[in-house]
Specification:
This protein is an alpha/beta fold. It contains 22 helices and 8 strands. A 4-stranded parallel sheet has the order 2-1-3-4. Strands 6-5-7-8 form a 4-stranded parallel sheet, with helices on both faces. Helix 10 packs across helix 22. The longest helix is centred in the C-terminal third of the chain and has 18 residues. It is globular. The protein binds iron/sulfur cluster (SF4) (2 copies). One iron/sulfur cluster binds next to helix 3.
Length: 389
């Protein structure tokens, strides 16, 4: 094993007073009961490695790899420990020690596919054909992809707001963007789209510890949204990544860009949006990157409640176990975490003849759909109840 040095922010590390208040909010601790799979245990291990009291061994790497990076602990911490930053920095340091096959596979996915729209589209069509031929493992939890490329989105002239479209989300769930654009237009907005290169935000790269790649992508994204119009995002994970560009790039231009980023429900909630109410039950799943990171989950509930019988889960927004590529890299733990989430959703829907789950993050939506739930994006649910234009 290569000798790895962690260079973590000492002030962030020592901010943890080991009180343990975050433990009930950690999905991996809830499932395993293992201190090393809790935020407190992980921080203690990071600190021990940083201070040279502990080596980076397999148990350390496992403790870090089994973190879903949901940041439920960060939201619960009374001492303001920036756990997300600590884990991102740790993952970046561990990246050099990954097995060669894993680094090669990640390089293909993160450098060769995600940032290249045409390659991603071809790969998506190939996956769709593979699904029809039943050669794509169902355990991957992918939605049924369209064999034909979806119709392109059209931008309005002289836009006063942009929609961030992303990479995988645009290739696989463009219908959500279409719904978001229709809702935004119903409020009178003129919606623009990014120029070339404004797709992949680098969220998955940051998650995987590939910071240099994420920085390159962030620079590309910023130039694809000229001017100062708001940048509306309908994927919680992408929104969280875009909001962190100031820290990632460390420039005032990046911080200015991040200040323009807003989740689609936050954008819509105070605007006039004609909606036709129904008694259908919608259980809202709060994606971690919307609730714990952006702290922008309440507008989703408020908006949906104007059209549906909205229910919330009673689990303080505990993670569903999707976590970027977590469901692929840690399938067993991811499924155990998901079981708890599904149980909380079923309890919330009690008494309803049928229900739909609303999820504002494509990763969570795919992960929960693979467990048999009916999932829609809040934008799709709202569009279905939009009054006459
Ligand atoms: S991360 Fe925060 S809540 Fe958790 S043990 Fe440390 S100080 Fe307590
Ligand atoms: S980010 Fe989530 S999984 Fe990781 S330690 Fe914090 S609560 Fe646990």
């Amino acid at each position: 094993m290569t000798e790895i040095r962690l260079r973590l922010d000492e002030s962030e590390l020592v901010a943890c007073v080991a009180c343990g208040l975050c433990l009930p909010h950690c999905p991996t601790f809830r499932v395993t009961g293992d201190e090393l799979k809790s935020p407190r245990g992980r921080i203690a291990a990071m600190r021990a490695v940083t201070e040279g009291r502990r080596a980076v061994d397999e148990s350390f790497t496992d403790a870090m790899d089994t973190c879903i990076q949901c940041r439920g602990c960060e939201a619960a911490c009374p001492s303001g420990v920036q756990f997300g930053h600590l884990m991102e920095d740790t993952r970046a340091a561990l990246e050099v020690d990954r097995p060669a096959w894993r680094r090669a596979a990640e390089t293909v996915a993160f450098r060769g596919v995600l940032p290249h729209r045409r390659v991603l589209d071809v790969a998506s069509r190939a996956l769709a054909v593979g699904q029809r031929l039943r050669v794509v493992p169902e355990q991957l939890g992918l939605p049924e992809l369209p064999v034909r490329a979806p119709e392109p989105l059209t931008a309005d002239p002289d836009p006063d707001v942009y929609l961030f479209t992303g990479c995988v989300m645009d290739a696989w769930q463009r219908g959500v963007h279409r719904a978001a654009m229709r809702l935004m237009r119903a409020t009178g907005a003129r919606v623009g789209l990014p120029t070339a290169g404004g797709d992949c935000c680098g969220a998955l790269h940051v998650h995987a510890g590939r910071r240099a790649d994420a920085v390159r992508l962030a620079r590309r994204v910023i130039t694809a949204f000229p001017g100062d119009a708001p940048v509306v995002v309908d994927s919680a994970g992408c929104g969280a990544a875009l909001l962190d560009y100031g820290r990632l790039l460390g420039t005032s231009a990046a911080a200015d860009f991040a200040a323009r980023v807003v989740d689609v429900s936050t954008f819509l909630v105070d605007r006039d949006l004609p909606l036709r109410p129904t008694h259908h039950v919608v259980v809202v799943q709060d994606p971690c990157h919307l609730r714990h990171v952006q702290k922008a989950h309440e507008p989703v509930h408020a908006l949906l409640a104007r059209a549906y019988d909205v229910r919330a889960t009673a689990d303080d927004g505990l993670c569903c176990g999707a976590g970027g590529a977590f469901s692929v890299t840690q399938p067993e733990l991811s499924h155990q975490v998901r079981e708890r989430k599904v149980a909380a959703i079923v309890v919330a829907a009690a008494g309803a003849p049928s229900f739909t789950v609303a999820s504002a993050n494509p990763g969570c939506a795919m992960h929960l759909a693979a467990a048999g739930l009916t999932i829609e994006h809040p934008a799709e649910l709202l569009e279905a109840r939009l009054g006459p234009d």
